[in-house]
Amino acid sequence: MSTTVAAPAAPQKTHCPYCALQCGMELTPAGTPGPDGRAPLPVTVAPRDFPTNAGGLCQKGWTSATVLGVPDRLTTPLVRGADGGLTAVTWDAALDLVVSRVRAVQAEHGRHGVAIFGGGGLTNEKAYALGKFARTVLRTPNIDYNGRFCMSSAAAAGNRAFGADRGLPFPLTDLGGADVVLLLGSNPAETMPPFVQHLAGARGRGGLMVVDPRRSATARLADDGQGVHLQPVPGTDMVVLLALLHVVVAEGLADRDYLAARTTGWDDVVRSVAAWWPERAETVCGIPAEELRATARRLAAAAPARGGRGAYVLTGRGVEQSAQGTATVTAAINLSLALGLVGREGSGYGCLTGQGNGQGGREHGQKNDQLPGYRKIDDPAARAHVAGVWGVDPATIPGPGLPAVALLGSLGTPGGPHALFVHGSNVLVSAPNADRVRERLAALELLVVCDVVPSETARMADVVLPVTQWAEEEGTMTSLEGRVIRRRQAVDPPGEARSELWLLAELARRLGSDVAFPTDPAVVFDELARASAGGVADYSGLSHARLDVAEEAGAPGLFWPCPAEPPGEPAHPGTPRMFLEEFATPDGRARMVPVDHAGPTDDVRDDAPTYLVTGRVLQHYQSGAQTRRVPELDRIVPEPYVELHPQLGLRTGVADGARVRVTSARGAVEAVARWTDTVRPDTVFMPFHWSGAGSVNRITSDAVDPISSMPEFKVCAVSVAPVPQMADDVGAHDAHDAHDAHDAQEVPA
Amino acid sequence: MTLHVPLKVVVVGHGMVGSRLVDELVRRSAESFDITVLGAEPYEPYNRVLLSDVVAGRTDVAAITMPDPGGDHVTTLRGVAAVSVDRRARTVTDAAGAVHAYDRLVLATGSRARVLPLPGLVADDGTVNLPAGVHALRTLDDAREIVAASVNTPRAVVVGGGVLGVEAAYGLAGRGLQVTLVDPSPAPMSRQLDTAAGAVLAAGLRDAGVTLRLGARPSEVLVAGGRAVGVRLGPGRGGDGGTGHGGTGHDGGDAGDVVAAGLVVLTAGTVPETGIAREAGLSTDRGIVVGHDLACPDDPRVFAIGDCAQPPQGSRGLVAEGWDQARRLADHLASLVAVRAQEAQRAAAPREHLRFPHEGERPSMAVRLGTLLASRAATDQGVDTRGTDVVKVKAGALSIVSMGVSGPREPAPGHRAVALHDAAAGRYVEAVVADGILVGATCVGDPRVAADLTAAYTRRTPVPVDPAFLLLTPVMPSAEPASSPEHMPDDATVCRCNGVTKHDITACWDDGARSADDIAAATRATTGCGSCREAVCGLADWLAATRDGGAPVEPGAALVHASAGEG
Predict the structure, then answer these.
(1) Helix/strand/coil (H, E, C) string of A470-482?
(2) Least CB-CB distance to A647: which of B59, B358, B474?
(3) What is the CATH number of the domain that holds B539?
(4) How far is residue A81's CA from residue A418's CA, in Å, rounded to a whole number?
(5) Which of A237, A379, A574, B24 fits a disulfide with A559 by CB distance 3.0 to 4.6 angstroms?
(6) CATH no. for A153-352
(7) Contact status of B385 with chain A (Cβ, < 8 Å)
(8) Where are the transmembrane segments (chain A) (predicted)?
(9) What is d(CA B238, CA B37) in angstroms, rounded to the nearest whole number?
(10) What is the pTM (predicted TM-score) of this model?
């Protein structure tokens, strides 16, 4: 067995385990008593000055150390025994079992019969190793990851328009100087609170524009003259964008010099928005035509070509998790290009990445159609280059596999995978139409789950492997701004927990592969850097050592692309701002693509006349993985709830505080009703951090975007009704919830 | 692979609806069709709805050009009118003499402006001959000419106070012209608005500088030297024009007088272009008669869509209706092709025609659509065209919307109408509800309510228990945020990022904190986004002022002290 590197005793500069903002924090090992007289926490957390958080932390970050000491931390491999329960075994026993079952599945179903489902919370090194393991050891095409659920539409649109997808192609701090920041489908005041600091400039100039069907915490930041909130009908954000661009065209506000010099496709886009005059848009999106006009004018006035200080258009999951997500992001990009914002210092388009390593996790080969360096798997040159780094024959690298929703849907079916490895994801809570996912997982011959806690998915597994998390490991993450940063170890992993890097190397060896799998994260990074050389996301000029030196020198993190320079040349400084000279397309111009609105796949109808939208609360992260185990957080928001307008409550007989049943074509969930006028009367909202009776992803739609294969989490049609008040029923539900709430955990996903 | 001969479709008319149909067909399955489009106008298709915006100077003319679907399967002939149809031979002959064969013919000929039979416009033999300065508002050329004319004349008369007339009058007034809007009804938009709503609109138009001549009809267009110089007015509907009663009528002047104007815009309605259909022996009434399937009853190979068509439920001349028809007809034609393709495929090779994405290439949209349609019950009666009859006037700050059952009408059993009449504030809202659904509404002067009503109407979302709630924006009034610390509720959240309440802060003060920094260290307030720094400092000041220097006080007592001390 490999030994685990002992954690240093000195304070470690690292980053928060949760979202893509990757707030800087310092962890001081050991010793201090926990709150409320609990056992001492293994580290204390202090915020530090890092560009994204500027010394701030939200409650999740402050309390993150609690996650290291949770009582049911997985500390030993578990194998399902004859009694149906999970039993502790040695690593040897667990890995032998996995190897023999994998071989059996391969023998019966072929190599594509084994699949991998990864996560956007894994370090760059782990994500890279996972893709390499799939392609060289398992030699299966079937690897995809939960980033398909969050980043794929923005990625597809960004790649199509700019030739590259980096969430923010500029440093986050640039936002502060802009006159206008237009946020669509994003609620950073709730999801990444320290981000709000970067909106201060725009708010001070009255230029925060929030498009959201709810008057969210972020929308309320625009109150009192600090900006505007547009509250469209769910699923119609794209109409807002098309109408804004229509006004830009109609009123001659476009940056024609920029369009001529830096884009192609403008004429077709102009025609495509001719049909979206504001009065027509109003009838679809529910925002008054004159508000759309005023918004477009205000945005245009902020553009540099019109003498403004700059404008940013930012999208989030609210518009991307849609069957027209790629098209909606494309509409946002078209608007940004029309105003000449992209590739100009002080302006731009960006998408706000969600998961901790949502950016890096989508660059190194976890995606079904991708090789490291954001290369395409069907590109012969890319295959040859990566095969060279891996020391394999390019012909042995499989082609594209199934994207996430199709992959999960095909599990255990004829022709589909029959064995699945899950890393850093709890698909039973986080995938759409989750009850169907449960069916498919049950049909597998082998389910291996690598996690830090017994997640719901882990509880269904045949083999559960305990892995390292956050402060227990070294590595790199790539933040929402494309900045490659160091994650540093502050404590020893508990019990038998091991890094996935070790685990994959062991499996490779035991499966008879002669492909090298180094286990030192710094060495893995060096290999990743070589594999990425020449790719879109080029890390070849980076190393752990260089990142460490830069951070000591006060320049924390470096932005990709950061290619290696020839010996003797100065090191590449990284690329804080992309596209300043040209885009990453073959002709250097941004491509504008006409798009049109089609509407939600599962739209309201007479028997499901209300929209369901989903989102987050400040205190929880993803499926509640770590956060529901942190008492300070769980106490504030202990259970799922349904926000509904009092008018909807009165009509349906659902009282404030009563239990409400929300039913879609896929099933029903139940939770507590909260009356609020911040949601439209035709819409209900549910946060998605829970499993059990109130687990909203059991009823969300698994219709997918035709280009990105991203599922349409964010809008579907439901009916709303009170839950009959029968004492026994209520008790049963509560017990069910409590049970699931305790068990449903996942690593950052 | 195409296993069949493409369906030859000839589309007569290249306006908003004809071009949309072509676009819809190409999107579904370009290779399944061989499309020929005949357009009388020399332009690429453009957005006719926006011509009033062109007149108003609110839009760049370049911005109204619509997508012109092309490709190998579409032949578009611009400036070439269709002249005749030979249904037996299945051909269309164009103005250049060319003959186009079709499998399916689609008439999308639109409509033309109705020209009142007035001296000065129409000769005794019935021929229309508009003098210089008189324009309909139907084509791009019309709009351009109106804009050109507006530069050279200070006064305009708009004849016809319907939607287009209101838009044109408002737009020309915005250009600085003295505009007179003439309509025989007692209020503008009388087809959509009842008297009360119309009065609110009339007031809004007057505020915008438009002179209204209601209850009046033009009796003659005065022409001098080949140019229009004015309009003579006679009495309007019911002959009550000259009396000016009802408060909604006239802005001065008597019927029979003359309004001087160098620009006369005709917006007195439209007439469907049915000539080619009638001559081909197809049934026409007001428009070309079609069934729910948009096919002519006389010939199932011929369809009519858009303004020229007269479907069973009638036509309002709105583009949303025409686009909905284009979509439905495209579905139909695509399914026709799909069925043919399936038959051909079955004949060619007995193999499974349906494939799923992960099993190989995706079947064509036509195949998928055909399968989808075939799986549906054949309910062709009573097409659901909801949401296509929303009339939204484009008149800037004047917000006017009408939809479904509303405005002047006979009371209908089962309908419940609620209304808010607030003339002094320029507001009128009516909502008509049946079976818990909004079936019609009128809203003048309240754009937010208008947008909410439209969303509820087009989506058929259930209305509140008391439909009167529909008349206002559904945001509950909330108390002003506490202006000083002592009025803030104890459980009010001060720091969202860290979930810190006022109670938490007072408690930590009582535990010894004595500054905002102490509070931050103890509670983490201000350590997230920092927005609450000011509030925390305010609380610290208040706590220092109210707690220090006296005995420790209970929280409740503190509030009393505070209000006494700071009052």
Answers:
(1) HHHCCEEEECCCC
(2) B474
(3) 1.10.10.1100
(4) 19
(5) A574
(6) 3.40.228.10
(7) no
(8) none
(9) 45
(10) 0.90
* Homologous superfamily in CATH for domain A12-68: ADC-like domains (2.20.25.90)
B154 located within any domain: yes
Which CATH topology does A610-743 take?
Barwin-like endoglucanases (2.40.40)
What confidence tens digit (pLDDT) does each residue in B72-127 have?
899 999 999 999 999 999 999 999 999 999 999 999 999 999 999 999 898 888 88
Residue in chain B nearest A680 by alpha carbon = B474
Domain end marker among B437, B471, B505: B471
Cβ-Cβ contacts under 8 Å for A167 (sequence gap 6 or more): A20, A151, A154, A350, A351, A352, A353, A358, A359, A480, A481, A482
> B530: which chain A residues are within 8 Å (Cβ-Cβ)?
56, 197
Domain count for chain B, please give it: 4
Q: Do B497 and A250 touch (CB under 8 A)?
A: no
In a shared domain, residues B192 and B306: no
Q: A593 and B474 in contact (C-beta within 8 Å)?
A: no
Mutation target to probe the B interface, by most B beta carbons within 10 A, among A203, A277, A630, A708 is: A277
- CA dist A410 and A440 (Å) reads 7
What domain range includes position B438? 399-471
Q: Are A281 and A243 in contact (CB under 8 A)?
A: yes
Q: Are A238 and A330 in contact (CB under 8 A)?
A: no
List CB contacts (< 8 A) between A604 and chain B.
459-461
CATH tag, A78-150+357-559:
3.40.50.740
* Farthest CA pair distance, chain A: 78
**What is the tens place of the pLDDT at every residue in A212-269?**
999 999 999 999 899 999 999 999 999 999 999 999 999 999 999 999 999 999 999 9
Best A23, A59, A63, A245 residue to mutate vs chain B (most B CBs within 10 Å) = A59
Specify the CATH number for the domain of residue B197. Answer: 3.50.50.60
8 Å CB contact of B60 and A59: no
Pick out chain A residues at pLDDT < 70. Answer: 1-8, 31-40, 726-749
User: Which of B219, B242, B268 is a domain's end point?
Assistant: B268
Structure token digits, residue B205: 């138009």
Q: How many residues in total does chain B contain?
A: 567
Compute the nearest-CA separation of B360 from chain A (Å): 12
Q: Flag if B497 and A610 touch (Cβ within 8 Å).
A: no
pLDDT score for B317 = 84
